Amino acid sequence: MLKITLPDGSVREVAPGTTPADIAAAIGxxxxxxxxxxRVDGELRDIMRPLEADAQLALVTAKDExxxxxxxxxDFAHVLAExxxxxxxxxxxxxxxxxxxxxxxxxxxxxxPFTEEDLPAIEAKMREIIAADKPLVREExxxxxxxxxxxxxxxxxxxxxAAELPDGETLTVYHSGSDWYDMCRGPHLASTGKLDxxxxxxxxxxxxxxxxxxxxxxxSRIYGTGWLNKKQLNEHLTRLEEAAKRDHRKIGxxxxxxxxxxxxxxxxxxxxxGYLIWRELEAYMRRAIDKxxxxxxxxxQVMDARQWEQSGHWGKYRENMFVIPDEVPNVDDEGPxxxxxxxxxxxxxxxxxxxxxxxxxxxKSYRDLPLRLYENGCCHRNEPHGALHGLMRVRQxxxxxxxxxCREDQIVEEVRAFCxxxxxxxxxxxxxxxxxxxxxxxxxxxxxxxxxxxxxxxxAAVVSAGLATADHGWEELPGxxxxxxxxLEWHLTDAIGRTWQVGTIQSDRVLPERLDASYVAEDGExxxxxxxxxxxxxxxxxxxxxxxxxxxxRLPLWLAPVQAVVAxxxxxxxxxxxxxxxxxxxxxxxxxxxxxxxxINYKVREHSLAKVPNLLVVGRxxxxxxxxxxxxxxxxxxxxxxxxxxxxxxxxxALPPDMR
Length: 660
Prior knowledge:
Blueprint: E1 2-5, E2 11-14, H1 20-27, H2 29-34, E3 37-40, E4 43-46, E5 55-60, H3 65-87, E6 92-93, E7 102-108, H4 119-131, E8 136-141, H5 143-152, H6 156-164, E9 171-176, E10 180-183, E11 200-209, E12 218-226, H7 230-245, H8 248-254, E13 258-259, E14 269-270, H9 272-291, E15 295-296, E16 302-304, H10 305-311, H11 313-316, E17 323-325, E18 344-347, H12 352-359, E19 371-380, E20 396-406, H13 411-428, E21 432-438, H14 448-464, E22 475-477, E23 487-493, E24 499-508, H15 510-514, E25 519-520, E26 526-527, E27 530-535, H16 540-550, E28 564-568, H17 574-586, E29 591-594, H18 600-609, E30 614-618, H19 620-625, E31 627-632, E32 639-642, H20 643-653
Parallel strand pairs: 1-5, 15-19, 21-22, 28-29, 28-30
Antiparallel strand pairs: 1-2, 3-4, 3-5, 6-7, 7-12, 8-9, 9-10, 11-12, 13-14, 16-18, 17-18, 19-20, 20-27, 21-23, 23-24, 24-27, 25-26, 30-31, 31-32
C-alpha cells in the first residue's frame, strides 16, 4: 500500500495505481467534482495519472487560479491544434505553449498561411471539440516508435523535435479521444469538456520561424486568450481594448516621436520630439546620480572576444551578441569577405566588463570604496526578429547602468541606499511597484556559499529599507537570477494594472574574480571588491514606451515634447500670437505657433490628437487685452488668463519633480 499525505497532515493508505481523482472521490463528492489536477510532491500532474509511490498530495481546484489557468490554457492550445488539423487536412503541428494571458500554436499549413478570416471557423470547431468532452489520456511511448509514427503521418517537425530530446527522457503523448494526439509533457485536464467554451477567443495570426531561427521554415502562429470563465475573458478583452488605445507605437506615430523600419531591425529612429523626452529623462537621471555620489563614465562599443571569454559572456551569452571580424574585409569580387584567420570582436551586450576595466586602472584602496561608476551605456543584443516589439524589445538600447564596487561590509548599506533612490524616482513618475528577489538559476557561476551570502545580503537590504512587505509585493523567485548573481527586481504597475519589470540590482562576486579586480584592504593585502550591477529605468527605450502607455501619451508637462501651442482664431492675432510664443520660450517653455488658415475647432482636434498639454487660443480680443484662452488637454472648456499669469503657471508646472 502507498502512504499518501494530504495538506492537513492526514495519511491515506491506497493501492498502487490509485489516482488523485480516486482520493478526491473518497473524500467527498464535492471535491471529486471540483478537483481538476493534483500536486504530487510539489509537481503538477493530471488528476487521472496513477500514483506510483508514497507522496505528499494536494488536490488542485479552480480556486488555485494560477495552476487552473495554466492547465486551461495548455488545453486550449491542444484543442486549437486539433481543430486546425480537422479543418485544414495536411497541416503539420509544431509547438503550442501557454502564455501569460492565453496560448498560441505554430502550424505548417499545407497550402497557404492562415489569416484572421480563418479564426471564426477555427473557434467554432474548438467549441465542438470541447462540447464532445473527449478524454485527455496520457501515454508514455517509445522514442523510436513515436518518431516513426510522426514520420508516417507526415509530421516532420514533430519527428525532428522528438529525435533531439535527451536520451533517457520519458516521452509522452496525450490522446484527445481516439482520433488525435500530440507530443506533450503535460499535465492536462481530464477531458476537453472541463474547459469553458465561452472562456476563450482567438486573437490574431502572425508568421513565426520554426524554432525561432530565420533560416528555418516560416510557420503560421495562431494566438488566443484563454480563461476559466466568460467573466474573466470579458475583463481581459476590456483591458486589451484599453491597452490598444495606449499602444506606444500608435501614440508615438500620432505624436511624431519615433519610427522603426526594416533597414535597422530593432533600432529606433528618434524624431526631434521623441528625443526631447529622452533628453529630459537623461538630465533627470544625471541630477539623481550626481546627488547620490556616482561618477559618470563612457566605455567602448566594441571589445575583443578574449575579453568576453574572460568575463564568461562568450560562453554563456554569445548567441545574443553581435560578433564582428577584426580585419579589413576583402573588397574584391572573388573570395570570401572575411578570412578564416580573423580574430573576433563583439558589440557590447552589457557594460559591466568595461566598468571593471576602468576600476582596474591604478591601485584602489579600501578608502576609495564604494566607487560608483555610472554610464548611459548603449548596448546591442541579437534578439530574434520575431521577438522585437516597438520600444519594448529592441536590439540597440541605452541603459541607465551603474556598477558599485564596494567592500563586504558596505553591501547592505549600498543596496539599501539604492532601494531608497529607486523608490524616490519611481514615485516621481507616479508608479507603484513591487520588489522581487530572483534567486540562483540552474546554470550559474560561483560556489553555493557565495550564492547563499549574496542572496542573504540582498534580502537583508530590502528588510533594512522597510520594503520586504506585502504592501510592496515582496516575493522570492527561485531560479530567476542571472548566471553570475542573484538580483532584486522592481516591477512597476501602470495605469491599467499591467506590470513591467524595469529596475534591478545584482550582488556579484563572480565578475571581479574572473576579471581580476582588487583593492588594497586595511590589512595591506589585496581583496576582491563586490560588484553591484544596478539600473532604474532599465533602458531608456523601454522606459519611454512604458511612460507613453502609462500616461496614454498625456505625459507630465515636464516631459511633454511640446508643452504649449499658441493657436490663432483670426489672422489679425498672428503678431500677438508670435509674441506670446517668444515670451513662453523665454520662460523655458517648449512652445509652438499655429497661425494656419484653419478653423479653431480643427486646430483643437489636431493638437489634442498630438497630446499637446496646453493650447493657448488667441483672437482680436485677447490681442487687445494681453490675455489668452487656456485649454488644458482632457478638460472641458477654457480659462481666460493674463499672459503673465499663464506663463507663471506653466513655468511652475513644467519644472521636473526633483526641482520643485
